[in-house]
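Researcher: Please predict.
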Amino acid sequence: MKNRYGGPLRALVARDFHLRVYVDMVDTPAFNSDVIAYPAITVIAREPAGTTRIARQPQIDAPALARLAQVLTSPLPAHASHGVRELSGVTAGVEPWILESFDQMVLIRRIEAGLPTLEEAGCKVGIGVATGADQAFIGTFDDLDVEPDRKLPLVTTRDIVTGAVEWRGLGVVNPFADGGGLVPLDEFPRLKRYLEVRKTEISGRHVAQKTPANWYRTIDRITPALAQQAKLLIPDIKGEAQVVFEGGRLYPHHNLYFIVSAEWDLHALQAVLLSGIARFFVSTYSTKMRGGYLRFQAQYLRRIRVPLWEKVSLEMRSVLKSAGESRDLVACNQAARELYGLSEREWSIVSGVGE
């Protein structure tokens, strides 16, 4: 319904079928054990497209479910009093299904029609390094016994829990040459000794078995220049956007997404992403987890729309930077509402997402 890999199937449904019914089971106690991700119940028919009947968090007992099924399948129009809403235009080619509300769908489409995506506005979204063997490649920075240019200070989610970077002193071993490809181990005796002591664990990874000659590579290539760039760091699973400024000293771990930009001031962008705007976009396009948590993944962050920096007034730039630097959520929301030119009603749609 939401993820990028579902695009072809969504296109098929939009072209040849009708999404009749969607029952959202998020946070519904329908299972014998606790779960993190919830399914949805869908009814899809081979017939012309029409409205979709939507229900959320149904009461889990036989009489209530029988009544709900009757309303969902009735030929008569559904009414909100029955706990069911009807929404038009849910399926649209490969686009993710927006099933929250008609107002939300209209507003997000309007913003999307008028503004570029983050990356179109000169911001790059990426994810930190996955090693496939963290115990081998990651350790206390000062204790990693490799050549000084073969390790980088590493930032993880535990370093940013307060909303600011408080580095715990970890580092990651870097087996890559600056120009690409792996460094020859014979030219780095300390690195060679360090890796060969841990060869059994490192060689057991799929990436190493696939290309045995490159057994000591991390899953993702490490680009040291990224550590030296100022960046915004965003953890994956959160109830609200947590956006932390890192000044250009640390390399992100794979459980952190990062944003760098040569166009936008990062503190100003931090204010936008800390505001309700980021959650509005991510909530619309992300799958929801237990407790209302969202996936702040790159594919969803890239859907956020922002103005071109050159079109932001000098006064607004100053307001945004100040709000971002202070991490004052009230100031961030006020600035974002003005930046996007949203009415009071539109902002209530933005700020009411997920409620």
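Model: The chain has a mean pLDDT of 91.
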